User: Fold these one by one.
Assistant:
Number 1:
Amino acid sequence: MLKLKNIFKYYSSGFGKTYVLQDINLEVEKGEFVTIMGPSGAGKSTLLHIMGMLDDPSDGEYYFLDNPVHKLGERQRSQLHSHNIGFVFQSYHLIDELTVYENLETPLLYRKVKGAERKSMVCDTLDRFQIVAKQKLFPSQLSGGQQQLVGVARAVIINPKLILGDEPTGNLNSEQGEEIMELFKKLNQEGTTIVQVTHSERNASYGNRIIHLLDGRVEKERNTNR
């Protein structure tokens, strides 16, 4: 599904370069559930943002669904991202001024989904995530767990081929976190490819492969016993 070849990410500073990622070579197959782990500053979120086309590598090649992302213009990348990738952030990233319904509708507006179909997709998603009763509420009226549930629902509404989770349970208590991870597990079993960044070994155990980063490099990889 995606392939990273000799990926570097650096920032120029004074007379040199500060490297965030160094020579990353990585493939993720369709249907995998991959976890990226490592200490703070290892480059985990940067790597995830490059996969999600929210950031560009300084050097290297990135292929997504056989498309050479590193050669595409911003508009083409945006289209590829909006049609295929759902992103779940630690801090929810819901739009405060919009209701739950409107937050779910937003990615469909970007894709120019027609009104009747849009309404049907939002209603189906509200039902699927059991948040019909919350549809007219604003994010500030929801608990952290409910906000993250809406965040996942928004990521899933476009039926993405890939879900990227950046510490998706980081702000949740253990029960809420487990609920989100079980949801990810179910989505993966239904065929969605998932890549998550987490510090939690428990969350990592939901996936089938763990990639450890250290100082911007892949230190080691291991399969889980899932």
Note: The chain has one domain: 30-54+83-223.
Number 2:
Amino acid sequence: MKLLLSDEHVFYNSFEKDGLKIVSMPQLIIDLMNEGGVCVEAAELLIKRTVKNV
């Protein structure tokens, strides 16, 4: 997986923990979908898990 730090707005609703920026779940899902391949499957699993917890 790659980490893109070029756009500050990518980290919408993010927070810092131990010096690392953590993105929101919706942002992570979008980034995984955009990456394609096996990342789409990971995004779909996160969506199912998120919907289940609503």
Note: Helices lie at 25-35, 38-52.
